[in-house]
Write the structure tokens for this entry.
Amino acid sequence: MKVTYYGQSCLELEINGVKILFDPFITHNPLAKNVDVNSLKPDFILVSHGHGDHIADLFTIQKNSGAKVVCIAEIADWLSKKDVTNVHGMNIGGAFNFEFGRVKMVNAVHSSTLPDGTPGGNPAGFVVYAAGKKIYFAGDTALTYDMKLLEDENLDWAILPIGDNYTMGIDDAIKATGFFNCKNVIGVHYDSFPVIKIDKNEAMDKFIKAGLVLKLPAVGETLSL
């Protein structure tokens, strides 16, 4: 299993040849200016919520790839009205078996409005169970005690927002790892805008002192999980 980071909260998991893209936001992100959005051909697109910095490139990538979009029911309905037919709607607490493995939709504490002002239902995170690993993609969220519900999952990796202001910051992300007992973290949702700029060295130091592994891949960098 490997993951490629495309900036903000957009990354792609590749599992036995199946590509799963999360929260596509590339063309409007200056940090991802060297990423060719038309080259991305995922099999699945997982959407955590409706904000523009998570779905800005969804239509382009879905049209180019024919990917199945997995999202909350309200966003699924919105997409179907915009002629995106390959959609799988879910809701918080539900899980489904796809060809690559199982996906469970879990709670996130945030907001969710689509770019045209349509309510986007509840924000969400995902747990992906595949290839013998368990990966938690938290989406945009505050620190929430609901994360304790993942404690017995024995997660291999957690993909957590760390930019603060709109989501958890570094300190709350460290607290979160204690709730769900996972030492391996990929940080996302930082540096794209001035208000979520972080000190990477400080972040690394804090995670190391907490006995945790923090990965902050460069845009376009691929990691093995």
In short: Helices lie at 52-55, 58-65, 73-80, 170-180, 200-209. Residues 155 and 182 are 6 Å apart (CA to CA). The chain has a mean pLDDT of 98. DSSP finds five helices and 14 strands in the chain.
